[in-house]
Amino acid sequence: MRNYTAEYKSYHSKPAQKKNRAGRNAARAKMTALGRTRKGDGKDVDHRNGNPRDNRTANLSVMARGRNRSKK
Fold first, then answer.
1. Half-sphere exposure of 49 (CA within 13 A, CB side)
2. Is 72's pLDDT higher than 90?
């Protein structure tokens, strides 16, 4: 079983991870504002270079959730 409390304390609460999460949320908001995504569409916003803080429009793309999460 996963211990979510311990996982949050050891990883998700770190300042770098908070900034990465904020970057991913900002990317989604940006693509929504541009009309490329909408709530509940089942799509993910992909950062082409893998850096969640790089929210240039040229670095963002919308793709199917499964395809984005299977990228290595």
1. 9
2. no
